[in-house]
Specification:
- Keywords: Oxidoreductase.
- InterPro entries: ADH-like_C (IPR013149), GroES-like_sf (IPR011032), NAD(P)-bd_dom_sf (IPR036291), Zn_alcohol_dh (IPR050129).
- The chain contains eleven helices and eight strands.
- By secondary structure, the chain is α/β, with parallel strands linked by helices.
- It folds into two domains: about 150 residues, NAD(P)-binding Rossmann-like Domain (Rossmann fold, 3-Layer(aba) Sandwich), CATH 3.40.50; about 35 residues, no CATH class.
- The protein has a six-stranded parallel sheet, with helices on both faces.
- Helix 5 links the parallel strand 1 and strand 2.
- Helix 4 packs across helix 5 and helix 7 runs parallel beside helix 8.
- The protein is globular and about 55 Å long.
- The termini are far apart.
């Protein structure tokens, strides 16, 4: 949200053939990559940094129960960021994932989730899932990493009194919600967009130390000539993460 950070960002955008990088951006956010980190792993530094910022902005405490709603590549990064940063802080945090795709549920378990559960069909479904898990309290925090009305309302329904929803997905439409419930139960709604230079450094260190594993998040590897095919795979949700390989020129 820093005006200077936004003013010194790359121009015109990350998908352009050529970009300009202002000196301030180079000075503060260009990091040398260690030789132990592959180019594929290093490419996750920026999205992981955004997740790191979301976790750092969320008031998590020892023994909290966290729900990750949506287990795409970002949700699986968020899951690992919560776990890794909690461990660094000496906190034991229980983490649960929710998604519609069975393969992603299994991958979430393998990447450290205490469990991963199929997304229910109705808006109050997560409340019914997490009341037994949390001895009737509800989740302390829910991270929303997928857009849509139902995921948002399900995340809100999963919370305990005093719980927090962290919005980490762009919602293009209006979402109806019960403001009175939020008020009466002292619930909080936070949102996180992008990252900071410090978050980038933390993310790179998490990858370098192997505290966040990303190799299995790449579902497709395509040459740059098939860029549009890769974009279509993501739009159709047929890919978890597409990595574009550029052959070096001779």
């Amino acid at each position: 949200m820093c005006p200077s950070f936004k003013a010194s960002n790359i121009d015109p955008c990350g998908l352009a053939e050529y970009i300009r990088v202002p000196a301030e951006h180079v000075r503060h956010t260009t990091l040398p990559l260690p030789e132990t980190l592959s180019a594929e792993e290093a490419s996750f530094t920026e999205p992981l940094a955004c997740c790191v910022r979301a976790v750092r902005r969320t008031p998590l405490l020892q023994g909290d129960t966290v729900v990750i709603v949506g287990l795409g590549s970002i949700g699986l990064l968020m899951l690992q960021a919560v776990k890794a940063l909690g461990k660094r802080a000496g906190q034991m945090i229980r983490i649960y994932g929710v998604d519609l795709v069975p393969e992603r549920l299994q991958l979430a378990r393998e990447l450290g989730a205490d469990d991963a559960l199929p997304a229910p069909a109705h808006e109050q479904g997560l409340r019914e899932l997490f009341l037994p898990i949390t001895e009737g309290r509800g989740a302390d925090c829910a991270f929303i990493t997928t857009a849509g009305e139902r995921p948002f309302l399900q995340a809100l329904a999963s919370l305990r009194k005093g719980g927090v929803v962290q919005i980490f997905a762009a919602h293009t439409g209006m979402v109806p919600m019960n403001i009175e419930q939020v008020y009466q139960q002292e619930q909080s709604i936070l949102s996180t967009y992008s990252s900071s230079p410090e978050d980038l450094r933390i993310a790179l260190d998490l990858l370098t130390q192997g505290e966040v594993r990303v190799a299995r998040l790449i579902s497709h590897r395509l040459p740059l000539e098939q860029f549009h095919e890769g974009v279509q795979l993501m739009r159709e949700r047929a890919a978890l993460k597409v990595y574009f390989q550029i052959e070096p020129s001779m």
